[in-house]
């Protein structure tokens, strides 16, 4: 939803292979179908990712590196706000893990 969906839509319009990295399979698949229909680009894909989980980030990065020949653009725009204090299973404060640590780790894992 929001900025991420708009960016994905514009990339797909430019005929880019576009991977939507979403926490929710249902919402993500709905966005994929909407973007494919709007652009006619069949190369819009869904991959599950929760940036609040470093294990999820690592699994996502491994899959991208294994499945994709190259990665030209990475848009890190996932984030949360206003959540009550919580700790992830990895012992990290949830908002900090989701908004900062996860995207930082993802970027570093995907760099050549």
Shape: globular
Q: How many structurally independent domains?
A: 2
Mean pLDDT: 96
N- and C-termini, Cα separation:
29 Å
Count of extended strands: 2
Largest sheet: 2 strands, parallel
Strand order within the widest sheet? 1-2
Low-confidence segments, given as residue ranges, are: none
- Tell me the quaternary state: single chain
* Order of secondary-structure elements: HEHEHH
Annotation field: number of helices = 4
Estimate the helix proportion, in percent: 40-55%
Share in β-strands: 5-15%
> Helix/strand-derived class?
mainly alpha
Tell me the radius of gyration: 14 Å
Keywords: Oxidoreductase
Protein name: RDH11 dehydrogenase
Family: Belongs to the short-chain dehydrogenases/reductases (SDR) family.
GO molecular function, one term: oxidoreductase activity
Folded structure, characterized:
- This protein is mainly alpha-helical and 112 residues long.
- It folds into two domains: 1-48, no CATH class; 52-111, no CATH class.
- Helix content is 52%, strand content 9%.
- It has helices at residues 2-13, 25-39, 54-67, 94-110, and strands spanning 18-22, 44-48.
- Strands 1-2 form a two-stranded parallel sheet.
- α2 (25-39) links the parallel β1 (18-22) and β2 (44-48).
- α1 (2-13) runs parallel beside α2 (25-39) and α3 packs parallel to α4.
- The longest helix has 17 residues, at 94-110.
- The radius of gyration is 14 Å and the shape is globular.
- The mean pLDDT is 96.
